[in-house]
Write a sequence for this structure.
């Protein structure tokens, strides 16, 4: 099983600042198999990025994804108040088919 | 966009069976993608449970495989989850979602299931 480790566990920033979230895999992940989600309290996760760098429908362009191999990054260029949430990375395959990182909580400083 | 809605008992007794249904609206269960279940214990992260295709083919998380059945009912445009021999560790919010392009791109709102006597 591929293990995803996200860092930091908690990130404290102010609106307008840039956020950089990391996801490291225990072994190489095919780029098209890496996704990022946002989850706000009491809500279901929302897909932000798939294929490591492709924004999902309706996702603002301040969200971007990058990386390859074992190191992937989600960047939020300029934080808006609604961006403070928990973020998860996810990889596909081989077994179980979908595994998630433990999450990074982005909180207002 | 397809809409998903989970339903089922919110309380299950230990050693009992957890059964949930996901109703699919604004789309067909026979679409060319898979349908997944994911759960999230209170205050914790996300765990993928398994998925099904409209043909009935399934993929399960090995950690749950011995207790798990996912099925599809095309006549009702829904798919279902059945988890046997539940314990307190199965207490979680259960989500249904669409599996497409190696990610989970559309989610239901989730339903909390508590395992307790």
């Amino acid at each position: 099983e591929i293990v995803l480790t996200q860092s930091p566990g908690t990130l404290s920033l102010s609106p307008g600042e840039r956020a950089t979230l990391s996801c490291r895999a225990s072994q190489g992940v095919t780029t098209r198999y890496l996704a990022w989600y946002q989850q706000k309290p009491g809500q279901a996760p929302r897909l932000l990025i798939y294929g490591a760098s492709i924004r999902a429908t309706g996702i603002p362009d301040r969200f971007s994804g990058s990386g390859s191999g074992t190191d992937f990054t989600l960047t939020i260029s300029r934080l808006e108040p609604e961006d403070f949430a928990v973020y998860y990375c996810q990889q596909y395959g081989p077994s179980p088919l979908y595994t998630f990182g433990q999450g990074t909580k982005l909180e207002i400083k | 966009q397809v809409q998903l809605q989970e339903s089922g008992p919110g309380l299950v007794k230990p050693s009992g069976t957890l059964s949930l249904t996901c109703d699919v609206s604004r789309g067909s269960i026979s679409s060319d993608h898979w349908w997944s279940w994911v759960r999230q214990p209170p205050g914790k992260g996300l765990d993928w449970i398994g998925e099904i295709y409209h043909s009935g083919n399934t993929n399960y998380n090995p950690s749950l495989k011995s207790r798990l059945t996912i099925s599809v009912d095309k006549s009702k445009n829904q798919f279902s989850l059945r988890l046997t021999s539940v314990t307190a560790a199965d207490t979680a919010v259960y989500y249904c979602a669409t599996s497409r392009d190696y990610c989970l791109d559309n989610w239901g709102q989730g339903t909390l299931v508590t395992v307790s006597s």
Q: What stands out?
A: The mean pLDDT of chain B is 97. Chain B touches chain A at residues 36, 38, 45-48, 51, 59-63, 95, 99, 101-110 (CB under 8 Å).
